[in-house]
Amino acid sequence: MLGYARAMTERPEDGIPLLREAIEQLARGRRTMEALFTTYLCEAHLLARQLAEAAALAERARAMSRDRFERATEARALYLLGEIAAHDAEGQASHRHYHGALALAGELGLRPLVAHCHVGLGKLDRRTGRRDQAHEHLITATILYRDMGMTYWLERAEMELRELV
């Protein structure tokens, strides 16, 4: 968890080796959190803008989570695939991954992940000129974040909304 914390505090290069070590230890043991920690490592690589490595890890996490029926981790891996694919000019794959994550997260009651998917879709729709859809997704995200008391994420979603104007 120290590796993930370091990665999330804008120091992904400090977190990546620790996360790799954690995954190696998990692979030698019962492997019960391996897919989840793989998504953490994926996110660290994404923050470090190492998109090819992040994509490979997200695919690996998705496959592992499906094989092991870890549906929440599968939703997280799909979301990360959406985040990675959002760097593509057209964003078609990103839409597909975000919607897959959104459906699974909604089914499982993972409200923070649902909100994150809406922000991702809102940003993508804004970038591709679908302003009405972007507005709808960002409004949904702000409502969810507000209801959950997630002020950090609420501020980020509100900032995205302001950029629509």
Structure description:
- The chain is mostly helical and 165 residues long.
- The chain folds into two domains: 1-109, Tetratricopeptide repeat domain (Serine Threonine Protein Phosphatase 5, Tetratricopeptide repeat), CATH 1.25.40; 111-165, no CATH class.
- 82% of the residues lie in helices and 0% in strands.
- It is built from nine helices and no strands.
- Helix 3 (34-47) runs antiparallel to helix 4 (51-67) and helix 5 runs parallel beside helix 7.
- The chain starts with a helix and ends with a helix.
What would the keywords be for this entry?
mainly alpha; 9 helices
Our estimate of the beta-strand percent is under 5%
Measure the end-to-end span.
Answer: 39 Å
| Count of discrete structural domains | 2
Question: What is the CATH top level name of the largest domain?
Answer: Mainly Alpha
Report the CATH architecture of the largest domain: Alpha Horseshoe
Whole-angstrom Rg: 16 Å
Q: What is the general shape?
A: globular
CATH homologous group name of the largest domain: Tetratricopeptide repeat domain
User: SS-based structural class?
Assistant: mainly alpha
Order of helices and strands: HHHHHHHHH
The level of helicity is: over 70%
Average pLDDT, to the nearest integer? 91
For the secondary structure, the number of strands is 0
Fold-level CATH name of the largest domain: Serine Threonine Protein Phosphatase 5, Tetratricopeptide repeat
Number of H- or I-type helical stretches: 9
- pLDDT under 50 segments (min length 5)? none
